[in-house]
Design goal:
The structure holds two protein chains of two kinds.
Chain A: E1 4-7, E2 10-14, E3 19-25, E4 32-38, E5 44-51, E6 56-59, E7 62-67, E8 72-77, E9 86-93, E10 99-101, E11 105-110
Parallel strand pairs in A: 2-11
Antiparallel strand pairs in A: 1-3, 3-8, 4-5, 4-9, 6-7, 7-8, 9-10, 9-11
Chain B: E1 5-7, E2 10-13, E3 19-24, E4 31-37, E5 44-50, E6 53-57, E7 64-68, E8 74-78, E9 87-94, E10 104-105, E11 109-113
Parallel strand pairs in B: 2-11
Antiparallel strand pairs in B: 1-3, 3-8, 4-5, 4-9, 5-6, 7-8, 9-10, 9-11
The chains are: A mainly beta, B mainly beta.
Chain lengths: 111, 114
């Protein structure tokens, strides 16, 4: 049974800092892995989708990596801004396309 | 904006009542999934519909049921509401059932059960 864990649960950094969010999963036979952003009380915004055959994806200041052998994914945010403050969720896809989510990392970027 | 819409935005019900939540999928998407997100938790998979048939179910009791219509919009019905059903309910649509199809989420319906 796939389980997804995110550490830390909360993170506070000063503006401009580079940071890394961690995601681990128990079953290396995942299909794809996706990172989402969620603002308080809102739905999910897709940030990056990493196909199972890929090792990383980049979009602007965001870079996500996937290491299936170690059961880990990281989301790297460069030059953080107060507007990046949100909860970041990672989710692993199973064969049927069902998403299994971690509990999220709540990020606060202080001006 | 993903093109996935949900209604209503917020809903307050009392224990024992029944509720229906609605989702309009993105144009061209034939697969809809529903997720429950309790406060401070990640979303949990409820079930998925593909071309009007249930196509996968998570660990939720039968009082959680759904429908998908010919235009691929969907409903989530919950009977005999319990206090623990209070959560954000998220709908996601995509173009197929395989994992290669990205899921696009709606804004959610916030359900409060008193």
């Amino acid at each position: 049974k796939q389980e997804v864990t995110q550490i830390p649960a909360a993170l506070s950094v000063p503006e401009g800092e580079n940071l890394v969010l961690n995601c681990s999963f128990t079953d290396s036979a995942i299909y794809n892995l996706q990172w989402f952003r969620q603002d308080p009380g809102k739905g999910l915004t897709s940030l990056l989708l990493i196909q199972s055959s890929q090792r990383e994806q980049t979009s602007g200041r965001l870079n996500a990596s996937l290491d299936k052998s170690s059961g880990r994914s990281t989301l790297y945010i460069a030059a953080s801004q107060p507007g990046d403050s949100a909860t970041y969720l990672c989710a692993a896809y199973n064969q049927g396309g069902k998403l299994i989510f971690g509990q999220g990392t709540e990020l606060s970027v202080k001006p | 904006e993903t093109g996935v819409t949900q209604s209503p935005t917020h809903l307050i019900k009392t224990r024992g009542q029944q509720v229906t939540l609605r989702c309009s999928s993105q144009s061209g998407h034939n697969t809809v999934s529903w997720y429950q997100q309790a406060l401070g938790q990640g979303p949990q998979f409820i079930f998925q519909y593909y071309r009007e048939e249930e196509n996968g179910r998570g660990n939720f009791p039968p009082r959680f049921s759904g429908l998908q219509f010919p235009n691929y919009s969907s409903e989530l019905n919950v009977n005999a509401l319990e206090l623990d059903d209070s959560a954000l309910y998220l709908c996601a649509s995509r173009g197929g059932t395989g994992s290669e199809y990205t899921q696009y989420f709606g804004p959610g319906t916030r359900l409060t059960v008193l």
